[in-house]
Amino acid sequence: MSSVSVEKPSFLRAQIGGLPRPFWALWSGTLVNRLGTMVLPFTGVYLTQSRGLSVAAAGLVMAVYGAGSLLSQPLAGVLADRIGRRATLSGGMLATGAAMLALGYSASLPAILASMFVLGLVIDVYRPASNALVADLVSPAERPRAYGLLFWAINLGYAVGMTAGGWLAGVGFVWLFWIDALSCVAFAALVWRAVPETRPTVERATGGFGVVLRDRVMLGFTLVALGNALVYSQTMTMLPVAMTEVVKLSSGEYGLAMALNGVLIVVAQPLVSAWLGRRDPARTLALGLAIMGAGFAMTAFVTSVLGLAATIAVWTAGEIITAGIPGAVVAALAPAELRGRYSGLFGFAWSLSAVLAPLMGGALLEIGPRTLWFTIGGIGVLSAVGMLLLGPAIRRR
């Protein structure tokens, strides 16, 4: 009996112990915000069904959103370093809530376009500030675990938010906008009240983004991140198209298989984050990227829902392995006073992939499914090789 009572607290401490209270305030705010994330997954449906836009007009609206998001991350990185992490995060969340409500009540195409551009500009402003806060608050040895726990909160909240959003969309789209906006306000208030400002008081570096762009190791890592993002973005772009239009799975079968991704992350990721955090980050990230690439390459042979579930299990394992490492690498590469800018450049890679992934994936799928999935798998493997090549430089930092 005594051995059992000792082991359980030890395991819990290994997973959640040793992290400062302000981190848990940030974690809680992230979870609340993701629980309320309901608008974006249903934007296309909202624009075409509720606002009566054509598919072409809806595509234009989403392109404008993408343009805003490309500007978002570098701008947010500068703000996080100049005015502070807490002010940037809270201000970005309040602006996102306002943009959500503006979009929800916009009836004309010009108003919708303006609202979507602003939403793209502000919705992810919190990311560089959040990443910099974790780097400021958490010791280097614990950062992979901390970033992994944030990744877990995002996935848990998103899974619940998607389920609730699907039900609420049937009741009325306006509910989605209000709940999303209120979750943004709650995140902003929690961070403002419970998280101290951590920005260094004196900036030792000058030159703004020029300093970041002269860091060859960070540029190399950003290319690796772009490769990772191009692979993962297919889950939201070409994977649903290929599975329903080419493999002929029903929407229900596809949704059931994709639910496995969230279940595996929620169950497995907290169990392995502490162990993964003790491994060499470059080699571990390379392994995860290679497994993700292999999982997507296997999609070329999918002919049934069970086959799709098997490939999802493989690339989800890679996603779990990589979960907390990129943020920890960026934190290690960045000077303390430039953590916002470094995180902004990293986030820009993901924003760019949101534009490039559907264009690239659509063109490759027209050639053939195997061309698409082997190319995506190859990008994953090349990203893994790139990470291994960067490993010695990252370890020296």
UniProtKB/TrEMBL annotation:
Keyword annotations: Cell membrane, Membrane, Transmembrane, Transmembrane helix, Transport
Keyword set includes Transmembrane helix: yes
Entry-linked Pfam families: MFS_1
Molecular function GO terms recorded: transmembrane transporter activity
Family: Belongs to the major facilitator superfamily. TCR/Tet family.
CDD domains for the chain: MFS_MdtH_MDR_like
Membrane topology label: Multi-pass membrane protein
Name of the protein: MFS transporter
Compartments (UniProt record): Cell membrane
Protein's UniProt keywords contain Cell membrane: yes
Domain (Major facilitator superfamily (MFS) profile) ranges: 22-395
Superkingdom field: Bacteria
Transmembrane segment boundaries: 23-47, 53-71, 109-126, 147-169, 175-195, 216-234, 254-277, 284-306, 312-333, 345-365, 371-391
Organism: Nonomuraea aridisoli
A GO cellular component entry from the record: plasma membrane
Location, primary (coarse class): membrane
